[in-house]
Amino acid sequence: MSEHTSSRPDPVVSATDLLEHDLEHEQVVVANDPASGLRAIIAIHSTALGPALGGTRFHPYPSTAAALADVLALSRGMSYKASLAGLDLGGGKAVIIGDPATQKTEALLRAYGRFVESLGGRYITACDVGTYSEDMDLVARECSHVTGRTEAHGGAGDSSVLTAYGVFCGLRAAAESVWGDADPGAVLAGRTVGVAGVGKVGRHLVRHLVDAGAHVVITDVSPAAVARVRDEHPTVRVVESTEALVAGELDVYAPCALGGALTDTVVGELTARIVCGAANNQLAHPGVEKLVEDRGIVYAPDYVVNAGGLIQVADEFEGFNFERAKGQAARIYDTTRLVLERAKSDGVPTATAADRMAEQRMLEVGRLRGIWLR
């Protein structure tokens, strides 16, 4: 695929682009509707446990290649996330290429809904970065395979609420493994937690941290997001960049923006004993998890702790009940403990332990799909 000097990404994904990736995905679909401006890629990683559920990310990718790489990684993560969350769902994801602030329209979202509908329920969409419950209501006017809708339309509303709660539950488990659990309710009291990204999820996570007595330091590329959190929590300290946050004295680092947060450089500079945040695909490349382990940093795998939002939107299938969904999200605490214990017993990084646990369930339960039913 050639690179273009134009700011408008090439909407075409060639077979060569796909073959350059070590694909383990079941299906990758390009959706292109010039009339509405829709340029999207839908990736279904696995349906071993059920239909592939995953959000729609609306983002101004610099190229189609970047969008493709992101959707492939995100959809794979959703398979593992659903598996360890105990859901009978597979993993999928979609990306819409463009700036949601200027390009998101009713026509585009409804055109996107038509493409999702064409997959016949193999992929179920929901919100992600750049999309909201109100957007899913528009998608649902053309598609029956949508969740994460507004409460007015019988949906769960903002899934970032339980995403943040699940991250907090996972963080408590990680903190207890590092600093002991003599008083679990106060394990984060007095600890310094750096949150990078205080948009949808990070904002709610800050509230949980402040309530737990932590000293919170934040950063975000959006001045409005920072101002909103400062208005809600005046004690929060602000730094100008993620680099400044990472370089500071932290007990916990919580990446809550886009992926690739844990690079070799970041891991080398971190003073934090724990990394636990809401961002997807935090490990910048294969092998960095070993560097994290070698530095004595406890990494709570992202897809383990950030599954609360998936749990929330999946609960819509039974008729959404917030307390029921919150109860299931609270189990992320137990799952995180199991992952940390498995890593210790197997002598492997926590990311490897989580992968093994997720793959084991996909294999054991997914095998049942081979038992023929009328």
UniProtKB/TrEMBL annotation:
Residues 157-370 form the Glutamate/phenylalanine/leucine/valine/L-tryptophan dehydrogenase C-terminal domain. Coiled coil: none annotated. It holds the Pfam family ELFV_dehydrog_N. This is Glu/Leu/Phe/Val dehydrogenase. One of its GO terms (biological process) is amino acid metabolic process. The lineage of its organism: Bacteria, Bacillati, Actinomycetota, Actinomycetes, Propionibacteriales. NAD(+) binds at residues 197-202. The active site is at 93 (proton donor/acceptor). Gene3D superfamilies: Leucine Dehydrogenase, chain A, domain 1 (3.40.50.10860), NAD(P)-binding Rossmann-like Domain (3.40.50.720). PROSITE patterns: GLFV_DEHYDROGENASE. Keywords: NAD, Nucleotide-binding, Oxidoreductase. SMART domains: ELFV_dehydrog (SM00839). Belongs to the Glu/Leu/Phe/Val dehydrogenases family. InterPro entries: Aminoacid_DH-like_N_sf, Glu/Leu/Phe/Val/Trp_DH, Glu/Leu/Phe/Val/Trp_DH_C, Glu/Leu/Phe/Val/Trp_DH_dimer, Glu/Leu/Phe/Val_DH_AS, Glu/Phe/Leu/Val/Trp_DH_bac/arc, NAD(P)-bd_dom_sf. One of its GO terms (molecular function) is nucleotide binding.
